Amino acid sequence: MCLLPGRNSRITKPKFYQVYLFEIFSLSEQKDETLKLFYFFHAAVPGLPLLGNLHQLKEKKPHQTFTKWAEIYGPIYTIKTGASSAVVLNSTQVAKEAMIAKFSSISTRKLSKALSILTHEKTMVATSDYGDFHKMVKRFVMTSMLGTSGQKQFRDTRNMMIDNMLGTFHTLVNDDPNAPLNFREVFKNELFRLSLIQALGEDVSSVYVEEFEKVISKEEIYHATVVDMMMCAIEVDWRDFFPYLSWIPNRSFETRLLTTEGRRTAVMRALINQQKKRIARGEARISYLDFLLEENTLTDEQLLMLVWEAVIEAADTTLVTTEWAMYEIAKHPEKQDRLYQEIQEVCGNDIVTEDHLSRLPYLNAVFHETLRRHSPVPLVPPRFVHENTNLAGYEIPAGTEMIINLYGCNMNKNDWEEPEEWKPERFLDGRFETADMYKTMAFGAGRRACAGSMQAMNISCTAIARFVQEFAWRLKEGDEDKADTIQLTTNRLYPLHVYLTPRARK
């Protein structure tokens, strides 16, 4: 596949390119049978016959490989993944054009076999194609949980979550001041508690699962609904790249995915049924499940999938962002001091609340810089170009897959100075208006922007501020450069271990 520059496009010449000359005749119905000549500038990554570029992506960190290729072939190029071709976008400007201006032409999701199984063929807000179903369920989640009014309903629960974490930190420090504590373990437990309360109306400690014929613990619920799902979501089925061979069984992949999906479904069904009994007793609560049941417009499968989506999305990405933020804050004591001073100047002896967030610009810069440097979702799930469109001056034919490399956009040296460095100050230099603070696109853009962006910011920013207000943070010795991630995610490979020193309250 070639990318055809539009009439007014400005082409930046890559280090390697091929120029093809085609002779194209106008349609016979036209009066003028003039021969037209077009130059096709094909910025394509060289690959192997049949495999294309698959062998170059075997390390399972494609976002990093795509970024390296962008330095050679430019911000938009073509790759071959077996029998398919895909356009990869590595520029903020081009990605925003795709997600906003050209949304109507590329709004369809292209899911892997693993994601198709886990999401029951797009029965979720985040993975459904843009249409009536997507609009309806996004309205549901915004109204009941993630919009402004929904956030107000759960504010006390978020405050309790942060108070509990700080209480646990103080206990651990008092028990052994010289031992590093595992940040992820504390944050994970409280964030999962919040996700359960929001989704189900209760912090579930255990549940009887009929298919297992036993009661499972909260830890087992967490693994079945969050951890196992995240690991399965990045499983690769080679048949995704060779559809004409889909008749060949891939039994190990299918067994692993279907077993994990079946376990998730059984656990979620048990959780929902447990809450339905509560509702039948007349014990209505403020929760996503109660809201959806009151609407009474969904099938049982849709209800299960939407409630599960609320659990997993609240319990994962916010953890990833906050853990990276505290790693960077602990690694850079001078930036930690600056943040602490800002908190002191704005809040004094008062505890930081969500009401203070708009008056803490450096805190907001810390949050957005963490999203830029450690975007929780490095690759937007591929989209499908369903009608011919022009993007960045290139004609993209219908049928093309499109991959938006957020990691590559946020590491693009044309958009960011010293992109490898974590520098919150870059968001305070006057270049960014308040409305443009989402330049990192960690929450997407346009009509497919993440529904949970407000909650993620409320939780993460308030937690970061409270943590720095209460403690001085220092990394465990030797952890300064432990920034490895798990395959194609940006989840830290090694949990964050830190030393905390309580700050004296004035």
Question: How would you describe this structure to a colleague?
Answer:
Pfam families: p450. Its cofactor is heme. With 506 residues, the chain is α+β, with helices and mostly antiparallel strands. The chain is 44% helix and 14% strand. The protein has helices at 62-73, 92-101, 113-118, 132-146, 148-153, 155-175, 183-200, 218-233, 251-280, 288-295, 300-315, 317-331, 333-347, 361-373, 406-410, 453-470; strands at 4-5, 18-25, 35-42, 76-81, 84-89, 108-109, 181-182, 206-209, 214-217, 379-384, 389-391, 394-396, 401-405, 471-475, 497-502. The strands form 5 sheets. A 5-stranded mixed β-sheet has the order 4-5-13-10-6. Strands 1-12-11 form a 3-stranded antiparallel β-sheet. It has a 3-stranded antiparallel β-sheet with strand order 7-15-14. Helix 6 (155-175) packs antiparallel against helix 7 (183-200) and helix 7 runs antiparallel to helix 11 (300-315). It starts with a strand and ends with a strand.
